[in-house]
């Protein structure tokens, strides 16, 4: 349940079962916020329906970080009366609704649901089976690097603008706004007292649109084009920060701070739990895996390179290891750097040597994969691959000695052509 506290930050003024929504500038519209959320980059954001043994269902938001795991806030997951949890996503490629069910839910163990102030408010939900048609989002790992970054908050539920606050119910539809991370817990924030919050909570204020007279409490007073806040409702909605153009999950919505009953209006604050402060805990539960292990088998093998090669030209975030928005040859280089290898290392023993030369020679002038000597991903094993190998050949010289090169060329010449 998204908690909105008043100026004293001690009284809980509103607890609602509406799921996490947003408020935006009064000179922007609901379609603007819906359009931002409809980007394929944010399809990992989903709605959570919490079914209790008695009473009406609750709502929250979360974000898929693995085909089987959802990241959210802790406080929606702590009720002992939870019977089951259902999840809903939208496949942005087809527009179809995708549903899933929870197998288990895990609030952060040190989270205290009885506290008047929510710290350590992060949790995980494991699904009963993997979601193959929703792309998970990577998590943000630069602990403390969120400050002054632009963050995109995606949520479901109550809507409104900077003048009215979050007053409109719009459950079931995702909307999004942007803001700038202004402060961490314990730091000054104008009229707001953040001393009870730990640095693992990051805050942003709702800077007013031009022509609106309102105090700026922290950070820059200049609003973003889609400036806004998370609104009253259940928490757990993701906040994304771009890393080299790829949205990473940097926070989950936890708390809102208001001065009056116009929750999430101009001058109010949103607080999100920083994901980067909890990566060790997340990694202990979620098999996000070895960096570069794109096939998820727990090891760096040629099969990973083959998957990257097959994905050339796509924007698959799992294969896009250098996070430049497109899968290509540079991602093979990124993988090799993770594996401590170089182009030409056909057997991936970290040395480019005569063993690799022998492999390439055996498959020369044919089609194949990395393990056969295809070092540039074009499926053809030819002089381009030989050149890649020569530039990294592991001898005292940087390329094969002339005698070794002649031997190689001779072995290639007598190797039968493969059809």
From TrEMBL:
Name of the protein in its database record: Trypsin
Gene Ontology terms: biological process: polysaccharide catabolic process; proteolysis
A Pfam match: Trypsin
Gene3D superfamilies on file: Dockerin domain, Trypsin-like serine proteases
GO MF, one annotated term: serine-type endopeptidase activity
UniProt domain Peptidase S1: residue ranges: 61-287
């Amino acid at each position: 349940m998204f908690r909105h506290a008043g100026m004293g930050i001690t009284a809980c003024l509103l607890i609602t079962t509406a799921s996490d929504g947003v408020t935006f500038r009064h000179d922007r519209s609901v379609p603007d916020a819906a359009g931002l959320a409809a980007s394929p980059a944010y399809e990992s954001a989903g709605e959570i329906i919490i079914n209790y043994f008695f009473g009406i269902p609750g709502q929250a938001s979360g974000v898929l970080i693995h085909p089987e795991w959802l990241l959210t806030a802790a406080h929606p997951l702590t009720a002992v009366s939870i019977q089951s949890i259902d999840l809903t996503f939208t496949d942005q490629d087809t527009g179809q609704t995708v549903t899933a069910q929870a197998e288990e839910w895990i609030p952060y163990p040190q989270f205290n649901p009885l506290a008047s102030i929510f710290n350590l408010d992060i949790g995980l939900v494991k699904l009963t089976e993997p979601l193959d048609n929703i792309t998970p989002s990577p998590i943000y790992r630069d602990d403390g690097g969120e400050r002054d970054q632009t963050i995109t908050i995606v949520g479901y539920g109550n809507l409104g603008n900077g003048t009215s606050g979050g007053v409109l119910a719009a459950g079931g539809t995702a909307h999004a706004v942007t803001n700038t991370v202004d402060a961490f817990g314990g730091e000054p924030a104008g009229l707001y007292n953040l001393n009870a919050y730990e640095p693992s909570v990051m805050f942003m204020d709702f800077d007013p649109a031009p022509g609106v007279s309102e105090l700026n409490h922290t950070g820059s007073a200049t609003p973003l084009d889609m400036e806004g806040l998370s609104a009253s409702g259940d928490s757990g909605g993701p906040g994304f920060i771009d890393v080299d153009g790829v949205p990473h999950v940097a926070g989950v919505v936890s708390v809102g701070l208001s001065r009056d009953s116009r929750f999430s209006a101009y001058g109010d604050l949103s607080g999100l739990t920083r994901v980067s402060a909890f990566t060790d805990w997340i990694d202990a539960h979620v098999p996000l895996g070895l960096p570069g292990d794109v096939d998820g088998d727990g090891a760096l093998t040629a099969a990973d390179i083959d998957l990257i090669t097959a994905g050339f030209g796509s924007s698959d975030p799992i294969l896009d290891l250098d996070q430049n928005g497109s899968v290509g040859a540079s991602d093979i280089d990124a993988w090799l750097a993770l594996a401590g290898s170089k182009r030409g290392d056909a057997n991936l023993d970290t040395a480019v040597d005569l063993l690799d030369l022998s492999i390439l020679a055996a498959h020369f002038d044919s089609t194949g994969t990395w393990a056969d000597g295809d070092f540039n991903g074009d499926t053809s094993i030819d002089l381009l691959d030989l050149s890649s190998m020569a530039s990294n050949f592991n001898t005292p010289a940087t390329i094969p000695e002339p005698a070794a090169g002649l031997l190689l060329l001779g072995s290639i010449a007598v190797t039968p052509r493969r059809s």
